[in-house]
């Protein structure tokens, strides 16, 4: 009995110590992050079915009010994970196929979205001589004509390339300027279709990772065109309602807008909220820590169900990102996957940043541990999340 009580005491002591270690680190990270900075920060920790949430800062400069479970934040590019979940479910059910051509789901007026290299040859002229203007410009040139290489089979853009960021499209089209206020608000599907009509893919598709919100926006349009519903409705009916994520939406109700905290830039200036049209599926979701903790738990459950199995499908690595600065990064459907620790574990993660907000979600599946961070400051929180995950790995906590 004495041995049993001693063991129980040690177990409880270790658990409390671990919990204190996480809170201590959270407090330290938040203090550094918000030093001389307006805004708020929420850190959510999940460990083997248990959770803890820490709140910092103030919802509005000078009001001395902490955020709470229902304060609403912009989550930016974390939206991509939800778009990929919709796509994965459509693929599994056979509604769409993962290797379908993107043109199959776009208006027929959009030219084929393919990569085909060009072959350039000197243009034939009447006198077969170089053009020159040496008196004025001091140079001469021979005109060339560039046409698609007829010996090369065109490579079509597939839906899976959109979700894994291997489509070859740029991150954003020229019509979206991030330095403008509310930069995505007026960019419509018609604008994106017009852009595609004149865009030429310059590199082979399906090979190299290059982050592309344009690709994710196209995937969202493909889903809505196929299923004949708005992106918000598709996501709500097929996923969010089941998880009771009632505050995770593109479009907010008046009541939700009352809980929508102001965002700030790193110069302590309040930044207007962002809204989205064609790019909603790439970055337009709002959420709360209450909802995001449900989402995190669904990604790392102790017991599998339909949705956790669906999410597992999106976590699977599809390719290595490559590149000197990607540090062995791998890419899933909407997720990034990075090495974690020294025992071949990996952290699956995503992050977002808008004009006045930043966010992070990351988890280590074998440990059933994860972190969500929501910030009303447009400053990366990825490093904070990773530090907390490493402490969770070290301490094996939390207390109930």
Work out the strand percent: 15-25%
> Strand order across the biggest sheet?
2-1-18-17-16-15-14-13
**What is the SS-derived class?**
alpha+beta
How would a textbook summarize the main sheet?
Answer: 8 strands, antiparallel
Tally the beta strands: 18
Instruction: Determine the mean pLDDT.
Output: 89
Question: What is the overall shape?
Answer: globular
**Helical coverage, percent range:** 25-40%
Query: Order of SSEs, N→C?
Result: HEEEHEEEEEEHHHHHEEHEHHEEEEEEH
Gyration radius (Cα, Å) is 25 Å
Name the poorly predicted regions: 1-17
Distance from first to last alpha carbon: 24 Å
Determine the number of helices (DSSP H or I, runs of at least 4 residues): 11
């Amino acid at each position: 009995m004495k041995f049993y009580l001693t063991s129980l005491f040690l177990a409880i002591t270790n658990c409390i110590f671990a919990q204190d270690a996480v809170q201590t680190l959270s407090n330290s990270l938040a203090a550094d992050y918000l030093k001389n900075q307006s805004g708020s920060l929420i850190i959510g920790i999940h460990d083997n079915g248990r959770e803890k949430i820490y709140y910092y800062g103030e919802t509005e400069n000078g009001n001395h009010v902490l955020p709470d479970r229902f304060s609403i934040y912009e989550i930016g590019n974390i939206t991509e994970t939800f778009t990929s979940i919709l796509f994965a479910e459509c693929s599994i059910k056979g509604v769409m196929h993962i290797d379908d051509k993107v043109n199959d789901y776009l208006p027929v007026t959009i030219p084929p979205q393919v990569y085909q290299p060009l072959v350039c040859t000197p243009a034939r002229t009447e006198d077969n001589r170089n053009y020159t203007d040496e008196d004025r410009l001091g140079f001469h040139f021979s005109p060339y004509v560039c046409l698609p290489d007829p010996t090369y089979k065109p490579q079509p853009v597939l839906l899976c390339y959109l979700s894994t960021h291997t489509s070859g499209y740029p991150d954003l089209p020229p019509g979206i300027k991030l330095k403008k206020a509310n930069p995505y608000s007026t960019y419509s599907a018609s604008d994106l279709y017009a852009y595609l009509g004149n865009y030429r893919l310059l590199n082979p598709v399906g090979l190299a990772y290059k982050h592309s919100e344009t690709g994710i926006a196209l995937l969202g349009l493909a889903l809505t065109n196929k299923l004949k519903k708005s992106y918000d409705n598709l996501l709500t009916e097929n996923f969010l309602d089941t998880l009771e994520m009632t505050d995770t939406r593109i479009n907010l109700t008046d009541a939700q807008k009352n809980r929508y905290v102001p965002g700030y830039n790193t110069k302590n200036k309040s930044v207007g909220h962002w809204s989205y049209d064609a790019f909603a599926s790439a970055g337009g979701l709002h959420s709360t820590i209450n909802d995001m903790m449900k989402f995190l738990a669904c990604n790392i459950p102790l017991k599998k169900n339909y949705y956790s199995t669906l999410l597992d499908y999106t976590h699977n690595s599809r390719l290595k990102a490559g590149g000197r600065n990607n540090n062995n990064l791998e890419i899933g459907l909407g997720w990034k996957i990075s090495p974690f620790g020294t025992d071949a574990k990996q952290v699956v993660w995503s992050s977002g940043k808008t004009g006045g907000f930043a966010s992070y979600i990351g988890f280590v599946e074998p440990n059933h541990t994860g972190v969500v961070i929501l910030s009303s400051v447009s400053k990366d929180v990825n490093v904070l999340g990773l530090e907390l995950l490493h402490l969770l790995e070290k301490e094996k906590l939390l207390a109930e």
